[in-house]
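Appendix C: a fully annotated inverse folding record. The material below is reproduced so that readers can follow the format used throughout the book. The structure is listed first as C-alpha cells, followed by the designed sequence.
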C-alpha cells in the first residue's frame, strides 16, 4: 500500500449525511460537526442537484465512507470495478477512509441484509485475503466494522478472537461500533465491557454510536432509528477511558428528529470527548511534575 492515514483519519464528532437531511443541513449557517460520513453506493455517479449539494459538503467537511455492498465475507468474487469506483470517488472528494461491515450481503444476487460470517479459522484466512485485495486497490487500509449478529452458524471461536485475528492477518483498521457491542452482549449474553477491553485499540480508526430497538427483554435489533441509550453512552466513555479520545460518529438512518434535537446527541459526544481530553491532559501534567 502506498498510502496510509495517521493515527486517525478524522477527528472530533461526526454525523452520517443522508439525502433526507440535505435541505435542512443546507439551510443552516453552520453545522456543529467535525466530519461526515456517507454510503458510497448512494452517491457514486450522482450528478445534477444532488451531486452539487454533495460537493458543497465535501468542500467544507472531512468525509469518511461506510459501505453497504462490498460483501467482504461473501462467496462471490470481490467487485473490482466497484472498488475502483470507490477509489476514484475518494480521490474526487478528498475522502479520508473507506469502511465496511465484517459480514456479507450477496450470493448470486443481493441479500438485502448483513449476514454473519462463521467464526472459523478458514473464514479468517478467506476474509483477510479479500480485505488485502481491496487494500491493494484503494492503496490504504480498509476499515472493518464489528457488526451486530443474531446467529453464529458454524462457530469455532468466539467473536473477539475472530475479529482480532482478521485485523492482525489483514493488517487493516477497526471501525468500533459501541452499539453493536451492546446489542450483541445482550443477545449473546456476554460482558460488553470485557469485550471492549479485549479489542486491539491500536487498530481503531474511528467509532460509531447509534440507537436500537428492543424486540424483547433478551433480543435487541440494531436499527439506527432511535436515541442512544445510557448503557451505550457508558460504553463510549469506557472506550475513551481505555483507548483515549476517539473520533466518533452518530448514526441515525430513520426516525430522524429535527436538526436541533439531532445535534444534541452530537453535542453529547463532544462533551464526553472534552471530558476525557481534560482527564488525559491532567494526568500528563501530573506525570511531568
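Designed amino acids, in order:
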Amino acid at each position: 500500500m502506498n498510502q496510509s492515514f495517521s493515527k486517525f483519519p478524522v477527528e472530533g464528532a461526526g454525523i452520517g449525511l443522508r439525502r433526507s437531511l440535505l435541505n435542512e443541513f443546507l439551510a443552516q449557517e453552520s453545522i456543529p460537526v467535525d466530519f461526515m460520513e456517507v454510503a458510497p453506493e448512494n452517491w457514486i455517479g450522482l450528478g445534477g442537484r444532488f451531486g452539487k449539494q454533495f460537493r458543497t459538503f465535501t468542500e467544507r467537511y472531512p468525509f469518511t465512507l461506510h459501505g453497504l455492498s462490498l460483501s467482504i465475507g461473501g462467496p462471490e468474487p470481490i467487485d473490482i470495478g466497484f472498488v475502483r469506483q470507490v477509489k476514484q470517488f475518494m480521490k474526487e472528494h478528498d475522502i479520508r477512509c473507506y469502511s465496511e461491515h465484517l459480514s456479507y450481503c450477496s450470493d448470486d444476487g443481493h441479500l438485502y441484509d448483513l449476514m454473519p460470517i462463521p467464526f472459523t479459522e478458514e473464514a479468517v484466512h478467506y476474509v483477510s485475503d479479500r480485505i488485502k485485495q481491496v487494500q491493494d486497490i484503494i492503496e490504504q487500509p480498509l476499515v472493518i466494522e464489528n457488526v451486530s449478529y443474531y446467529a453464529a452458524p458454524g462457530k469455532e471461536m468466539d467473536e473477539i478472537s475472530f475479529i482480532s485475528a482478521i485485523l492482525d492477518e489483514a493488517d487493516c483498521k477497526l471501525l468500533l461500533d459501541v452499539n453493536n457491542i451492546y446489542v450483541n452482549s445482550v443477545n449473546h449474553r456476554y460482558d460488553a465491557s470485557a469485550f471492549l477491553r479485549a479489542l486491539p485499540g491500536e487498530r481503531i480508526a474511528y467509532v460509531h454510536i447509534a440507537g436500537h430497538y428492543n424486540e424483547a427483554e433478551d433480543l435487541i435489533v440494531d436499527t439506527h432509528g432511535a436515541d442512544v441509550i445510557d448503557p451505550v453512552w457508558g460504553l463510549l466513555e469506557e472506550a475513551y477511558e481505555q483507548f483515549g479520545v476517539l473520533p466518533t460518529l452518530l448514526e441515525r438512518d430513520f426516525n430522524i428528529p429535527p436538526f436541533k434535537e439531532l445535534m444534541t446527541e452530537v453535542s453529547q459526544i463532544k462533551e464526553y470527548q472534552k471530558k476525557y481530553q481534560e482527564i488525559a491532559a491532567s494526568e500528563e501534567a501530573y506525570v511531568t511534575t
